[in-house]
Amino acid sequence: xxxxxxxxxxxxxxxxxxxxxxxxxxxxxxxxxxxxxxxxxxxxxxxxxxxxxxxxxxxxxxxxxxxxxxxxxxxxxxxxxxxxxxxxxxxxxxxxxxxxxxxxxxxxxxxxxxxxxxxxxxxxxxxxxxxxxxxxxxxxxxxxxxxxxxxxxxxxxxxxxxxxxxxxxxxxxxxxxxxxxxxxxxxxxxxxxxxxxxxxxxxxxxxxxxxxxxxxxxxxxxxxxxxxxxxxxxxxxxxxxxxxx
Length: 245
Known about the structure:
Layout: H1 13-32, H2 49-60, H3 65-71, H4 84-98, H5 100-106, H6 115-125, H7 127-137, H8 152-175, H9 183-196, H10 198-221, H11 237-244
Helix pairs in contact: 1-7, 4-8, 4-10, 5-10, 6-7, 8-11
């Protein structure tokens, strides 16, 4: 069966309802739940000064631009010293959601949705916006195949940038800033931080949801006979390779 003869995906109101419920659960537990009710630390309106400081510092080190500049001798501004594991997790998640823009744009479903706006907000608050988008998309209209956008140069650029930043993030978390200890020490820090920091928990939940949504979106775009369809099941790197190819 050719792609043009494939049956159109039907709207999925049940899936949409489940995703809206998941969105509400995500927002309540990670952003709104009182301190120590379900997660450590307080809700977004009672965030602690140390959490604000952590968010600001990892944001300043976005995509490792400032730390790398400092390493090569460009020191117009000193990068904040942050635990490399926190920098790694933040930038890995940001690189992943960064690569979602061309993926959303070539998706035939939901052509009338404000995809660029939703992606822009998701770059700051990740699944606070991506989860509702996926719920909204489940009941949106699907463009005819002949109106589907091709990936083009934009996808390749986003794929290369995401692949580079994600790979740097992995290496950075393991080897950067040796004063923070060896791999077992960093692993112990990860466990302690995951148990005590709501922001860290949120980023870990985000990357799990990114993997699921990547599989759904690529699976809807690539026809069953496509040799690239299996890339949807390779978290992060599968999306980067799919964008580049």
